Amino acid sequence: MSTGDETIGTDKGQDDAYMLDRRRVAQILYAVDTNDKAELANLMEPLHAADIADLLEQVNAYDRARLIRLYDREFDGEILSELDEAIREEVIAILNPQVLAEAVRDLDSDDVVDLLEDLEEPQQEAILDALEDSDRVAIEQSLSYPENSAGRLMQREVVMAPEHWTVGQAIDFMRERSDLPAQFYHVVMVSPRLHPVGNVTLGRIMSARREVPLTDLREETFQVIPADQDEEDVAYAFNQYHLISAPVVDDEGRLVGVITIDDAMAVLDEEHEEDILRLAGVGEGSLSDRVIDTTKRRFPWLAVNLVTAVLASMVISMFEDTIARFVALAVLMPIVASMGGNAGTQSLTVAVRALATRDLTGSNVWRVIRREVLVGLVNGLIFAVVMGCVGLLWFGSPQLGAVIGVAMVINLVVAGLAGTVVPVMLEKMNVDPALASGAFVTTVTDIVGFFAFLGLAGLVLL
Amino acid sequence: MSTGDETIGTDKGQDDAYMLDRRRVAQILYAVDTNDKAELANLMEPLHAADIADLLEQVNAYDRARLIRLYDREFDGEILSELDEAIREEVIAILNPQVLAEAVRDLDSDDVVDLLEDLEEPQQEAILDALEDSDRVAIEQSLSYPENSAGRLMQREVVMAPEHWTVGQAIDFMRERSDLPAQFYHVVMVSPRLHPVGNVTLGRIMSARREVPLTDLREETFQVIPADQDEEDVAYAFNQYHLISAPVVDDEGRLVGVITIDDAMAVLDEEHEEDILRLAGVGEGSLSDRVIDTTKRRFPWLAVNLVTAVLASMVISMFEDTIARFVALAVLMPIVASMGGNAGTQSLTVAVRALATRDLTGSNVWRVIRREVLVGLVNGLIFAVVMGCVGLLWFGSPQLGAVIGVAMVINLVVAGLAGTVVPVMLEKMNVDPALASGAFVTTVTDIVGFFAFLGLAGLVLL
Prior knowledge:
The structure is a homodimer.
Chain A: E1 10-11, E2 19-20, H1 22-33, H2 37-44, H3 49-58, H4 61-71, H5 77-82, H6 85-94, H7 97-105, H8 109-117, H9 121-130, H10 133-143, H11 150-153, E3 160-162, H12 167-176, E4 186-190, E5 196-201, H13 202-207, E6 225-226, H14 231-241, E7 245-249, E8 255-260, H15 261-279, H16 291-317, H17 320-325, H18 328-356, H19 365-395, H20 398-428, H21 433-461
Parallel strand pairs in A: 3-4, 6-7
Antiparallel strand pairs in A: 1-2, 4-5, 7-8
Helix pairs in contact in A: 1-2, 7-9, 8-10, 14-15, 15-21, 16-21, 18-19, 18-20, 18-21, 19-20, 20-21
Protein name (chains A, B): Magnesium transporter MgtE
Transmembrane segments (chains A, B): 299-319, 325-352, 373-396, 402-426, 438-461
Keywords (chains A, B): CBS domain, Cell membrane, Magnesium, Membrane, Metal-binding, Transmembrane, Transmembrane helix, Transport
């Protein structure tokens, strides 16, 4: 299936496509063990910088340090760009300063910005010092835009042409310039005041006659990105409108740079990752973080959960007398709470995603809430019957079966309602719904679940 | 901030960037109410097909049908491509067959494939019948590749050149051809047997002298995609190696098509969405699905959860006598289970993501498991102290405080262990860890939590 022409040293089997080849990892570590510099360079040569970064992340800290020292001058700047933040700082500290300077000098300016953003002050300085003055100024300018903004994401090199030019003029202009960016896909047409007015793809320029005006070839979809726009919105625009590249403008609407789809794709990937981890109560971070950092990051969510769990316990303690007389209630009550929690998580995840993709708006919020409540009602009724039977068969009490059934319906309806209303309200209050919805919704379903079940039991069974 | 040059009718404010403008939605619905065809066409004209699709998804079914009938011949095929599956079938059923035929004829072949995949047989036939014979054959060929494979994702039009050509030959060739694809970024160099051997970007061709051989300009990173590779792996390769386009080859390694980054980005987006929803126990689907479909999709996960909750209840019922004597146990036991469930979800989410991004492999799995267990231990110890105090202060029993503290440590350690081992094992067994991990891990933490807490209480308090 592989053509033998491509050379990246990853496994191409259907199951583990693009997984780092374990044998090669073992060979590399063996070369490190035997201090065999030539063999190491040889084994690493076919690997893409992204794969080398993965390799460095996956081996332990001791092997990593030895590998980097042995690899020495072969170390490429792109590997740094691809590394996880935690490992990156470690690697920079290990690298010979001269190798580091060389590695960084080869990088594109937007990659250097990406690298610098996450570093501590002294490491930032060390890298900036290694750069030539002109590069340094350009990078400091980029860093003057807010974090996570289009201004930081863009590259500053843009190929532009006056809007009145023809294909021939554009081609001659490009073929005369020696400093075209390595990757570009569009020529941006600009007005005399440098406002971008349209995009023309290189493919169209290639296939049109020389006398055709550029404006005749302009792309139908054209988006201009303000430099201070959040990168999340930039990624959304690229995905929504299938953009390949988009011009970035300053406050006065003048062209200052261009963002290409590969950067937007990386942002989309990060934002999704962040959302998934936030929904699970895990902050940002990576597999290679230390135990102490991971513990710190997981702690807050568990602490919030402890408070909500204690609140739920207080509800239970209101019914201690009832439980003392019917211990079966203690056996069954976690079922009601657990089902409510799960149904609530289902609803809130759908709502959080729909908010992120702009699919849940003022136009349909009431319809979505109604639907979630109805779904909770239907599923609640089904599980009420099931649990009613379980209650009856297990404990021989039709009243107990009825109580757990009714509590189930109540809790699943409330789960659907809270699972939608909570994220929508949080979004309105400018709190990230992915981060905070879970705690609120499970608090509601725990409290309602215990209260409905034990309260009804108190009324019916006593 | 807006330049006034771009025309897409979405709100560009910082908070709601790219959100559909509510006023425009209201105006559109008013035009539908007053049956004002000209005004409707006028209001819709500046909207991108993706925004029109969002609009159709967000209004209710009655307005949607009226809008589509009034919009009539203006309806563009691209809107269909952008619609959610559920709504898409509904819209196709409403569309005048002639309008539908026209709309589909304008689409690129890969978009038609994307459209057909999800449709029922009779609707598929209706659309295929509307196509010209040559298009029909091409589309049926694409449909012969497995679902979700690179073969379905690729476009068949490729710009290729023999590997021995110069820049001048490539330019002359392209400028003579009238049927170049609308969007292309690379010229693929091929061997005489049509095996792709390298990529050259149009930008580099533009800026090189005519006599330079194409091979001198080849991109450093070059990936060849087998046509039967899963689209998820394709998206991973694009993201990992920062590809813009990649040639697709058949079993013999011959060039059959090309995949571009915008398609890979759409797949990445879908796969992430799927992972998020699966982790929450929600199947695929969209906000616009009917109540009955949503209920069916949510039901299986809730049913699995009911079984695991009943298992946990059985553990509790083993300790009925203990609970009957110390009702405080019933009050406190959900706290231990809840903390374990949350810690387990944290660990499993990190593990599931790391598996998806190929960051968790044989090289580091033991180190990750050890880390998760240590994180569970440290957090467990902290919360053990907190809950020990709560137990003591609330119920005045140091023994009860000690029991809940020890149970907490045990359950958080088990949560870290199960949260990592379960997804890794599921992946090894080729079961999607995003889909199934949650149920297993919470079963473990529920059972261990109740057993540890109530069992210890039985030993210490009785």
